[in-house]
Amino acid sequence: MAIKTNTANAVVREACSNIISALGCTTKENFENAMNGVSGIKPTNDTTLYPTPFLSQRINDEQVEKNIPVFSSLDSKEYTRLERLMIASVSQATSSGDFNEILKSERTIFIFSTTKGNVRLLEQDNQHPQEGAFLYQMAQKVAGYFGAKNEPVIVSQACISGVVAQLVAERLLKAKEYETAIVIGGDELTEFTISGFQSFKSVSEHPCRPYDAKRDGLSMGEGVATIVYSTLPQFDTPQAIFIKQGSTSNDANHISGPSRTGEELGWAIKSALQSNGHNFTTDAIDAHGTATLYNDEMESKAIGVAGLTDKELLSLKGYFGHTLGASGLLETVICNEGLRQQRLPSTLGFSELGVPIPVNVRTQSGGFYGKSIVKTASGFGGCNAAILLGKDADGSNTYHLHRNYRNLAQCSIADKAVKTQGKVIFDGSKEENFGTFIRAAFKNISEPYAKFPKMDDLCKLAVTAVEYLWREADHSQENEYETALLIATTSSSLDTDLRHQQSIAVKDPYIPSPAIFVYTLNNIMEGEICIRHKIKGENLCLVCKDKAEAQKQLRRYADLLLSNHYAKRCIVGYVDYLQGKYEADFEDLGC
Amino acid sequence: MEQLIEEIKQYLIEDLPLEDITPAEIDAEAPLFGDEGLGLDSIDALEITIMLEKRFGIKIADPKAAKEIYSSVSSIAAYVQENRK
Prior knowledge:
The complex is a heterodimer of chains A (591) and B (85).
Chain A: E1 13-20, H1 27-35, E2 41-44, E3 54-57, H2 61-67, H3 70-73, H4 81-93, H5 100-104, E4 108-113, H6 135-145, E5 153-155, H7 161-174, E6 180-187, H8 191-199, E7 220-221, E8 223-230, E9 242-250, H9 263-274, E10 284-286, H10 293-305, E11 312-314, H11 317-320, H12 327-341, E12 343-344, E13 360-361, E14 366-367, E15 372-379, E16 383-390, E17 406-414, E18 417-420, E19 423-427, H13 434-445, H14 457-471, E20 483-489, H15 494-505, H16 514-517, H17 524-533, E21 539-543, H18 547-563, E22 569-578, E23 581-590
Parallel strand pairs in A: 3-7, 4-5, 4-6, 10-11, 10-15, 11-13, 20-21, 20-22
Antiparallel strand pairs in A: 1-8, 2-3, 5-21, 6-8, 9-16, 12-14, 15-16, 17-18, 17-23, 18-19, 22-23
Helix pairs in contact in A: 1-12, 4-6, 7-12, 8-15, 9-10, 13-14, 14-17
Chain B: H1 2-15, H2 42-56, H3 63-69, H4 73-83
Helix pairs in contact in B: 1-4
């Protein structure tokens, strides 16, 4: 068995960053505006986004054109607005140094964080997705602009995408797979997402009030952010900020409602501080803090579970709103800048504590002399993530890639047949269509499960494949946090995205459905599987150009988790469903 | 009222949707949410709000009121009876 040996420890530094939001086109502008208490959340009256006025933080395109010329120089017929914003963000971030060679290097990886990418393209045709609507197409285009040599990694994992993208960067760099990671996060305000969040009744009529007694929902936002992380020595400066380590977990409780106990986010925070033989502390937490009733309540409990109620707790949503797939990255840029400048903004919108555990919400903008911050995020699908950011390189380490995991079981579903270990175990060739086939296949192996008929086709496919896989091997040796679930798809949730887009095309009556919208996040299938099998360990949800690329990326990540004690077991799967075409291929990997 | 209760059961089965359940199997007095009865969850509650709007033209603006109205099929029926146009 080939073993890749790494001797020198690696440290991962932030080399440069950028934010594009209503608060500016550079990290500095955004940071200063937040420090001065300026919020980008403003009344929005645009019926192309929502029939009635609402509050949101929107990027001012004219401001971007003025400040980052590449934004307007790119042909808008060739590049979508989001692609141009992403290219502008990376261009601005890397304008301060000589990044030309680094961007084109074989030792550089582009990592994207987005929930919906170019979903706006579905407005033009809600029957068949255009090429650009596929997230991998968007990522290839943006990375291709910079001459990227490697196929990009795309994290699409609801609201934790931005934190997970950084965690993937940290792990791949410490495993010495690459020297530099260009991490880009972005999501636009669209009718698609606004109508969806409105259908969940989770949007406030006021600017959001995180952790406050009067909080009643989130504010929508849009943003694009970039962080370049690198192990290259030229970024070793006295001002460097480090990403140390992190963790993810799943509530295994509900696909939209957060955990009742906060135990799972608490576990992710504790793991971000204490894994790999390190025992770090943190001076502050920048949490998700969306200002919905249940998210903030859960976070307070999680912070209690992690024993950090005395540490300062910050939410930046009052400035930027909820920028979805960008949020974890955008907010980390502010934290890193805060660590560097020894200043941090306050939790705008907060005045009176309204969460069950007495957390220490930061109320004053100004000096911050701590050396570390934990950045967390939680999202639909029950997912949680936490990373530790710090001013020093203490506890540097290297991840091993042993490549000696064992394949304990395998299950595939295609062409109306379920196969385990390559042999047909359920033949559904007589079934009329995918719907009747998958129902029969699930019924063949499981007692009635009330959640199953409510799932979309992508989830039904993934859940059925794992149902068969799970029976093939013993799972009694691992506790609930020792099994990881890693999934990749090519079409992400486009099939259900089309259904949601079709439903909002009907204007009278305009009634978007939450039961459809929730499945427009492709990591919901992870949530469903975690609920079904009580998996609470590491979670990852990627989008890749095809199955071969997906398996390459997933197996490498599983190897990393197994070889470095982040998991004892990895359920790894490629799953894809679009307009009746489907395929699932899952493996159960162990040490 | 009996007829309205049967109608609501049918709409719940179609709109949520509830598979492998017939209207006869739904106890009109049993709790809809939690571990007993149908075991519905928070997304189902939002879908019931939509069902009432689509099927009966009734808008429920206050989510706190919804909790009480949605406690059982007969409590939904009573509310529909009182509020439908």
